[in-house]
Design brief:
- By secondary structure, the chain is of the alpha/beta class.
- Helix content is 37%, strand content 16%.
- It contains eight helices and nine strands.
- It has a five-stranded parallel β-sheet with strand order 4-3-5-6-7, with helices on both faces. Strands 1-2 form a two-stranded antiparallel ribbon. A two-stranded antiparallel sheet has the order 8-9.
- Helix 2 runs parallel beside helix 3, helix 6 crosses helix 8 and helix 7 crosses helix 8.
- The longest helix has 15 residues.
- The protein is elongated, with a radius of gyration of 19 Å.
């Protein structure tokens, strides 16, 4: 029997957004809101999932997946600010979800929830760049994770370079050493489009390599990305 997680229920869950179908279920992705982080929650216990989703939606948008297939379908189609997954799921475990997620999003904050603490699992979570948290998780624990998941300000180049708004966003991600694939997934554009922008940015900077971009990162203003 799964242990229930501790969390409060204030707030009203939002509806809307894109639906993804996997494993015979339909899951609802939260409609994107400007400046509002989007979290992926993976939990197969209906009661626990509803409580966590309702609690999280006080501060962030939430897509709730109930198993590995639904989770992969979600993060293959949406960009998320963080992942929260239970360890014990029907079918592949939460660690399998996390490992697949890391192939696509190596930098995004993640949390693995467990009712059965095991040292080996703790090490595995650490190796996958995730927090390993024992149930029940409190509302305060969720709030702290949300704060940690907030994106750092993106550096902007000096205004004199004349980069377009799109180039400025890409410049900021390159300054944080994102790969072309990571930039594409973060901004929802193709890798070829990213490559075209990178070429233009390098030309305007007068440099030959993207590795030189961080040298310009401290010379402009900063802003929160996207």
């Amino acid at each position: 029997m799964k242990a229930a997680k501790e969390a409060t229920e204030p707030g009203t869950p939002s509806e809307g957004g894109t639906r993804f179908k996997a494993s015979g279920h339909r899951i609802r992705a939260a409609a994107p809101l400007a400046g509002r982080p989007q979290f992926l929650l993976v939990e197969d216990n209906e009661g626990v999932g509803k409580t966590l989703k309702k609690t999280l939606e006080q501060w962030v948008g939430v897509t709730w997946a109930r198993n590995y297939d639904e989770a992969v379908a979600a993060f293959s189609n949406e960009v998320f600010s963080a992942l929260i997954t239970d360890v014990r799921l029907e079918g592949p475990s939460g660690f399998e979800v996390l490992a697949k997620f890391r192939q696509m999003y190596p930098r995004v904050p993640a949390m693995v929830l467990t009712a059965y603490f095991e040292e080996g699992d703790s090490i595995r979570a650490c190796e996958l760049g995730s927090q390993y948290v024992a149930k029940p998780i409190t509302t305060l624990g969720l709030q702290r994770f949300i704060e940690e998941a907030k994106p750092a300000p993106l550096p902007l180049p000096p205004p004199s370079l004349g980069l377009s708004p799109a180039e400025q966003r890409i410049f900021g991600l390159l300054a944080r050493r994102f790969s072309n694939t990571e930039v594409a997934r973060t901004l929802g554009i193709s890798v070829e489009t990213v490559k075209s922008h990178v070429k233009a940015i390098l030309a305007k900077l007068g440099v030959e390599s993207r590795t030189e971009i961080p040298n310009y990162a401290g010379r402009g203003r900063t802003r929160i990305p996207l």
